[in-house]
Amino acid sequence: MKGLRILAYHRVHPQRRGALCVTPDELEAQIRALLRRGARPMGSRELLEAVASARGDSRAPSQTGWSVPQRFPQPPGFLITFDDGYADIAQHAWPVLERLGVPAVVFLIHNWVGRRKPFPWEAKYVSRPGQEDLPLDWPQVRRLQSQGCEFGSHTLEHPDLLELDAAQRRMEIAGSRRQLIDRLGTDVPLFCYPRGHYSPALAEEVEEAGYRAALLTPRRARLPEHRYCLRRVGIYANDHGLRYRIKISPLFDLLRETRFRWTAPKPACCF
Asked: Does residue 84 fall inside a structural domain?
C-alpha cells in the first residue's frame, strides 16, 4: 500500500548480536528519519482502520484476496513490528519507542515465551547467551502491554506452515491466537507468517481463525497485497545509511516488485 511503510525488526542490542540486530542508537535514528519525512507512527488500530477503508473490502469472486486501499490516507504512516519476541525488546527497544512516542507490535512465538534458552537460530550469532538473548517471559510481556506495547501471533512454534497438515496448521494459527487471548486478556487481531512463507490457502485459514489482518516479510516479488498479505520491509544489521534511506523510500517498492534483485540477501534464519 503506497504511503504506508511497515518495518520488521527482530533484535535491538547495543552489542549488535548478529545479522538480525540493530543497536538502540540505530533504531532511534531510523525512526527519527521517518518522523522527519512527516510520516506518522501508528498501531494496530490505525492499521486495521486504514485497511478497512477500501471500498468493497470483501472477497471478490474472481480473485483470492481482500482489497486494501491503493494509497494510505495522508499523511503517510509507518508501523514498527518485531518478530519472535526477544527479551532485548523490553530492555533496549521499548525505551527508545516510548521516548519517541511510537507504538509497536511484537509478534510472539507463543510456546517460546518464558523458555530459558535462545531461539534455535541464535546459535550462529551468540556462543554465550545472556538474559537479553532469551525470549521474553510472561511478566515482561504483561509489563510491556501495560505500557502500551501491542502483541500479535507468530504461531506456537515458528514452523514452516506450508509443510504442515491441516490439523497442525489450525493449531499453529488458531491455537496460538486462542492462547494469546487467554494470556493477554485482549483481542489478538494480527498474525505474522513465519519465515515469510505464504499461500492463498494459508490466508484463508488465518481469516477463519479470527484474525483481521496478516503481515509478512515477502521472500518473493509480486505477491498480491491484501489484508491477509500486508507486506513489510525487513530491517537488519547492514541496513543503515543509504540502504536504509532506500528501504523507506518509494524506490524500494519499485525495486522489490520488479525483476531487479536486491543485492544484499536478508538473513535466512527467520522472518
From this structure: yes
Q: Is residue 227 part of a domain?
A: yes
Q: How far is CA 96 from CA 115, 196, 235, in A?
A: 25, 27, 16
> Percent helix, strand and coil across the chain, each rounded to 5?
40, 20, 45
Residues 113-134: tens digit of each pLDDT? 999 999 999 888 888 889 999 9
Q: How confident is the model over 2-60, as pLDDT tens digits? A: 889 999 999 999 998 889 999 999 999 999 999 999 999 999 999 999 888 865 444 44
> Could you tell me if residue 241 is inside a domain?
yes
What's the domain count of the chain? 1
Q: Can you give the CATH number for the domain in which 9 is found?
A: 3.20.20.370
Expressed as residue numbers, the domain containing 229 is: 4-257
Question: Which residues are within 8 A (CB) of 180 and not within 5 positions of it... i.e. 6 or more apart?
Answer: 108, 110, 151, 153, 188
Closest alpha carbon to 218 in 237, 239, 235, 233: 233
Dihedral, 1, 94, 140, 49 alpha carbons, nearest 10: -30
